[in-house]
Amino acid sequence: MIAITSSHISDERIEEIVQHIEKFGVAAHVSKGTDRTVIGIIGKADPALAEQLRAMKDVENVIKISKSYKLASRDFHPDNTVIKIKDVEIGGDQLVVMGGPCAVESPEQIDLIARLVKAAGGQVLRGGAFKPRTGPYSFQGVGVEGLEMMAEAGRKHGLLTITEVMTPEYVDICAEHADILQVGTRNMQNFDLLRKLGTIQTPVLLKRGFSATYDEFLNAAEYILAGGNPNVMLCERGIRTFETYTRNTLDLSAVPVLQSLSHLPVIADPSHGTGRRELVEPMCRASVAAGADGLIIEMHNDPDNSMTGDGVQSLFPDQFANLLVDLEKLAEVLGRKFD
Amino acid sequence: MIAITSSHISDERIEEIVQHIEKFGVAAHVSKGTDRTVIGIIGKADPALAEQLRAMKDVENVIKISKSYKLASRDFHPDNTVIKIKDVEIGGDQLVVMGGPCAVESPEQIDLIARLVKAAGGQVLRGGAFKPRTGPYSFQGVGVEGLEMMAEAGRKHGLLTITEVMTPEYVDICAEHADILQVGTRNMQNFDLLRKLGTIQTPVLLKRGFSATYDEFLNAAEYILAGGNPNVMLCERGIRTFETYTRNTLDLSAVPVLQSLSHLPVIADPSHGTGRRELVEPMCRASVAAGADGLIIEMHNDPDNSMTGDGVQSLFPDQFANLLVDLEKLAEVLGRKFD
Amino acid sequence: MIAITSSHISDERIEEIVQHIEKFGVAAHVSKGTDRTVIGIIGKADPALAEQLRAMKDVENVIKISKSYKLASRDFHPDNTVIKIKDVEIGGDQLVVMGGPCAVESPEQIDLIARLVKAAGGQVLRGGAFKPRTGPYSFQGVGVEGLEMMAEAGRKHGLLTITEVMTPEYVDICAEHADILQVGTRNMQNFDLLRKLGTIQTPVLLKRGFSATYDEFLNAAEYILAGGNPNVMLCERGIRTFETYTRNTLDLSAVPVLQSLSHLPVIADPSHGTGRRELVEPMCRASVAAGADGLIIEMHNDPDNSMTGDGVQSLFPDQFANLLVDLEKLAEVLGRKFD
Amino acid sequence: MIAITSSHISDERIEEIVQHIEKFGVAAHVSKGTDRTVIGIIGKADPALAEQLRAMKDVENVIKISKSYKLASRDFHPDNTVIKIKDVEIGGDQLVVMGGPCAVESPEQIDLIARLVKAAGGQVLRGGAFKPRTGPYSFQGVGVEGLEMMAEAGRKHGLLTITEVMTPEYVDICAEHADILQVGTRNMQNFDLLRKLGTIQTPVLLKRGFSATYDEFLNAAEYILAGGNPNVMLCERGIRTFETYTRNTLDLSAVPVLQSLSHLPVIADPSHGTGRRELVEPMCRASVAAGADGLIIEMHNDPDNSMTGDGVQSLFPDQFANLLVDLEKLAEVLGRKFD
Fold this sequence. Notes:
Helix content of chain A: 25-40%
Strand order of the largest sheet of chain A: 7-8-9-10-11-12-13-14
Oligomer: homotetramer
Structural class of chain A: alpha/beta
Shape of chain A: elongated
Number of helices of chain A: 11
Number of strands of chain A: 14
Order of helices and strands of chain A: EHEEHEEEEHEHEHEHEHEHEHHEH
Strand content of chain A: 15-25%
Distance between the termini of chain A: 47 Å
Radius of gyration of chain A: 23 Å
């Protein structure tokens, strides 16, 4: 950690700051430049020190050199985390495809889609029972019943299931029915939800907040890991930028960046990341080529009658099936297994 | 609402879409242009229709002409909402100043700061007992005890109090101790929290998500209003942009925009909106000149020993007092009362 | 084009607006909704009409349904533009790789790098003789001599050459020496430069402005096309977002988006798009998988002694050679030729 | 300047880097932390050193502690620059208002508007003779004749004039006719234009690029100053963000930030900064309260027949006149003269 002081700081004030730092049991190296004085803090400092320094008079900036997260960091855990759920391994050589509708609508719908996902070669069935919606008057999901419909379809067709959980009190019931719990983009910094997910062992797919930096994203994962749940996957799902033609800007550099900063598996979500059906296929290919450990893809059997607007980005069943054929070829060239 | 179709759509498909629209009890006007066909939906449509249209094949874009929120809209409620709490009126002629530390630290600290806020002419004491923190290892607030310390300081010095609530289960206890509940920027779309706040009558200060559009912000307010709590204030606290010199970019246009779109009071937060002490004063003045109904300002008696890094943006007590003298003069010219 | 009026508009004012529209020789369809009135303009309108409408009292918004560019649009030119330069075809089946240093530094340096690019299988040598620099005290390029060094190296090793032109008066001399002229991201809306490039036939690689929308990007291309030069390639080189870990955010969705909106070839620039050497390789692979017609990649033989800071994103020669081996395998699976 | 190395760097490599630094005549202090080694560069380093360090293997990041601009910096020039043109002083106590249409259209139009600006108390007439336009088919301005019409109207009504110059070759003719030359947002990094403006003495109003950081903005000013023209004003005109309700997001914090980093006068442009007529008035007030040295405001006598779409943000003459009455009162409270 480095503290940069204002240009007109007095020697007495520098000495005061140094003494403040030393109270935390770490050393301070003062380095006077032409314009400014830089104080380096040597040793693992309490996070409170950074905060106090930042608040102090005559300190202009505090730059962290070490990362603020530990358990999520590759420095701490050099080998890839591989999450094994039944016969699926996420984060290893296997390419994992999660497919399904935005929202579970009925037992027939989810059963039909599960059949299509399985037939195409997908390993995980996605579907929302609880839907986070911008406005209070939009369809909010079918609720607990949806969890049961999805669990049944997953069992019947031999697929794992993933569903979104929005609030701490629903974590237990969702974990009872689904193999993977998803934290949505708007909840990435819902710290109570993250803490609750740290108390169980069910794997969690944590979506990047639509305006979260990599550092904030990995700190959010740290909340779950620090609670005791090591089974976290990171999901890049597009960020908010000035471009409005696509619903979000899929930041595929996040895939290699997160894999270098962290040991956790990285999944890409080109459906939400683009918000446009015609872009899902090329961006699924690009995600795999960028090194993603898996994909989560929206597919709907009948978008004309979908219950949420996310149908606009859902693939038709035949598009989904053809895409997975392509991905298999691509996976092979890239040293990934997908079958 | 307007649906814009793709350029190669067939007449049969247009007819199918029109029939789909009419099932929702509204009329469809088809208007064929040189390139594209536009379908206008006339009448108050179910939000589900917009979503289904967006999902349909050959529909390229759906543009909402009416707003998706109602209770928050000035169309629905032409007069300003004035929230009266004891002898303070927020949203009327009075300029309201909320001041205090980022976090409550001890009874002595909050008592001292309350005395300073009162002496300077502020009406509301701010302070956090629960702190949302990016990383799990940072100071998370002193908890319920902090609520009690703050309530006591408010009572003693004749100030209203405002504190942040982070999770539905803490709403009741926070409402017991504080006059106003604050929803932080990371929780603006924590829909369960918003729903819970809709079930009480305690005034809520809703902070804009750091990447939320005005439309999303007003839809978040709508969740609280729709639940039955009409006492909502909107707070602009800076948005995330490419500029990193300031912690956030204070979007002061939000003040007149929100006042034109909505009848709810609008408060500005230049402390978080800039993240730099030296910018708080000019931006407080600018907020009042832009028409803000109130300000929320961080002030700390001893930033060197503040327990959170937000000290960097906290005013010193004398800066705070001088600023309020300036604001009084400014308020007078602008037709606001502040005394 | 659609004009949306304010909610309180009078019938007389609507009639005035309609008459104004009809003066432009197009028809106006008025459609009164519950809240607002929408006026549809039917027929190819003069762009001035959109502007006047936007300026009129009681007009709240004008939404263009047709695109504002024509020659750049795929509607106008359904087949891909293939730019043939000597034996290289850009925009067809061939994958094109442009490689080289940020700046030409000496005849020896550019000759050595040209040899490495050729040996690895690249078709085009890149290098800057004039460098656009944020501050006036940075190295500004070696100038005209650099053009000659590069032309010589290209000739000797059988490579095409591409170099950046920054100002209209240098267009002719750059075109004399280089096979392709590059317009940098800061000059995407330097309209005099674009107009000048429209008067020649030398192919132009137009880089997307770092905060330009797709629509603005294609309008910039339109300036060159409208001047009479049909040989334009579009280059995605990363956009500015809130994320600062990468220098820019490479927006790979731009590749399929631009290919669907336009017939022009699309090149990706993962070097500037990420600004970090370790991300260039995965993002080159991702670019090809997203469908890019070519890549432009920085490579330097001796980054420790590079004359510009862009060395941080330059590949070492062996990385470059290995990457091109990988890209060949990938190209094959994706139906592209690269040899 | 500080170089941060990668965690696995060898002592030999550190030594190599230090020797490289010392070749530039400055000292290097190595400070080994728990995770990383930090190398501090002590002394005024050549900008090329920063660039080379950034490019070197095992250097992860280079952080500049000193600023990259000099002449534009307040460290270099502690007193405010006051630009005196005839009897108007920009950057001193006086509040300066520049008003007029987006584009000069005819002698009658500009004469009428000049009269209105003068009557309301404005000191400078604005108007564009050359218009930068996103697409090639939009109205591009009336050209040189417009310069003459404006000069004549300014002379007749006793107003200074400001007009935009878009390309180096037009600098001289524009400077002949106008008192102040404006560089538009898209040209902030048109370095040849900046260099040319450095060779004259006519005052320049430099608009911030719509996605430029403060640092880039001040470096652009540095190009003009370094060329020998000290008469530069900075203009905040809104930045591009995710919010699309306003055309840009007016970043008013830029006013006090730029005034603290630099000695140059700062002008605000609420017309382009919001792009909506109803926001111009409150944001003009806010700009003055934030400390702006002046305002540039669009006003049009007949927006229904304006020749550019910017009419949407133009004030009507009576709005403009009333606003200036308000600003006078505000100026007084804030210690500014405006009469």
